[in-house]
Design brief:
By secondary structure, the chain is an alpha/beta fold. It contains 8 helices and 11 strands. A 5-stranded parallel sheet has the order 2-1-3-4-5, with helices on both faces. Helix 2 runs parallel beside helix 3. The longest helix has 18 residues. The chain is elongated and about 50 Å long.
Length: 234
């Protein structure tokens, strides 16, 4: 099926050029010039992925993401100014899947979009094309179902973005084994896409925050300073 990409940016030149480039690659596009106009449309009819500019009048990309995350977990890529490291960190902490600094390469943006969409694809159902669905992963109080992109802790649902899900799944597959940041990057960001250490750290913080919302005592993701992270099965 053709993926639909929503673009939200107050720069109409960017909207037009990126939309044309995506359509040339076979995507469907929907464009919005401000966050307020985009919010209702995205909530009522979610796209497969959205690209938000951060600096917008009326409602910026951070606020748009915050309000959208109250209703859904659509993958989101942020466009940021080159020096806005604080905005990048905030965006990742709030649940964005990726970010690209302006000025950006359209080829890079399209590569990131394809990578995230591939990660978001559910596993094939049992009996479909002769392939078995990926089995659910159970580790103590944690249950992860890759086929349904579903995560439970103590039987309560925890909503994770695609990137967060893949990072946690990688840790939970081998409890007690330390995974370096590079290993987690490889699991969550494929196709030789470079991200720096603080991107993984921001995702881990976000995952912990989500689990502590349902269990304030959650401490199953351990930090080993200078080494990486590990999942502790209770």
């Amino acid at each position: 099926m053709t993926a639909t990409i929503a673009l939200v940016d107050d720069d109409r030149n960017i909207l037009t050029s990126v939309s044309i480039a995506l359509q040339a690659e076979g995507f469907l596009t929907r464009v919005y010039s401000d966050g307020e106009a985009a919010l209702k449309a995205l909530a009522d009819n979610p796209p497969d992925l959205a690209v938000f500019d951060i600096k917008m009048p009326r409602m910026d990309g951070l606020e748009l993401l915050r309000r959208l995350r109250e209703k859904q977990s659509t993958p989101v890529i942020f466009l940021t100014s080159k020096d806005d490291e604080l905005d990048e960190a905030l965006g990742l902490a709030m649940g964005a899947d990726d970010y690209i600094a302006k000025p950006f390469s359209q080829r890079l943006l399209i590569a990131r979009i394809r990578a995230i969409l591939r990660r978001a694809e559910p596993a094939a159902p049992a009996g479909g094309n002769g392939e078995e669905a990926a089995p659910a992963l159970e580790r103590g109080r944690l249950m992860m179902d890759p086929a349904r992109h579903r995560t439970l802790w103590n039987g309560e649902a925890v909503t994770l973005t695609v990137t967060e899900f893949l990072i946690l799944e990688t840790l939970a597959q081998r409890p007690g084994v330390v995974k370096t940041r590079n290993q987690l990057m490889d699991a969550a960001y494929q196709d030789d896409i470079y991200v720096d250490d603080r991107t993984i750290d921001s995702h881990i913080k976000r995952v912990r925050r989500k689990f502590r919302a349902v269990d304030p005592e959650f401490d199953s993701i351990e930090t080993l300073y200078g080494a990486g992270y590990r999942f502790s099965e209770e």
